[in-house]
Fold:
Amino acid sequence: MATHPFPIVRHPPPGAGTPVLVSVPHYGTQPLPHITRDDYVEARFETFAYGFADTFASDLYGDLHEHGATVLATPFSRMFVDVNRRRDDFERHDGHVRSRRGVVRTHTMRDVAIFARPLGPADLEERLQTLYDPYYSALERLLTQLRETHGHAVLLDGHTGSPRRMKDHQVIIGTRHEATCAPQVTAAVATIFTRHGFEVHENVSGYTGGNIVATFGQPQARRVHAFQLEINSSLLTTTSREELIAHVSRGGIPAKAVENIARVRQCLREVLAALPSVLAATRDS
Structure:
């Protein structure tokens, strides 16, 4: 199914690595290789592959390997496989897979079928084995390598969020209510974003951390801290909130708010520089 190496893994330059793994599960905007326009119920649904991706996630997180992090991402839209969901997060109806916001998307939130042919359980299982399982295997392998090298590791699960759901929240840090990450780590991240003028909130309902953070964030048992970082995508464009949602839903690429993107990127670089010493202090305390 995958014609290119999967998942995307980008390593820092030799000798420049930090104990930070940046996972970007909603990075991809591509459809699966075998999907064509004829596979959709309506031609306009072809734009959903881009619309369901995190807007401008690649601009924020894609090159963080150049600043010491290891970066992991998927090229495919979460419409086809959402690696930040539980593997069993779907329903069956009349022998077919049915999912509006699960590990795949077969229907819109208004329960309209997206694809002309229903997705069978065997086809879904093949897709999960090809795209979902390798992502989690890569997470496990990379975190183990970082922990063995540095004595500990931190997983930053990077996202940009829809303004329809995030509303006026600018930056949200999710740690499953401090279960997946030491508070000193999240405090350091919050301080950096606040210093650059962003409003930061923690563990807002609906943004407490997805399956990746919940699975791998085990500070005590495995010396792996994990937090989810959500940046409101309305900060990253020059269009209004309503225009952004309409534009993205049509598959359009909105105009970038260059200065704000640069501010967020600077915050992320400072986070990567600060986390190693924060982690070391947390381990020694």
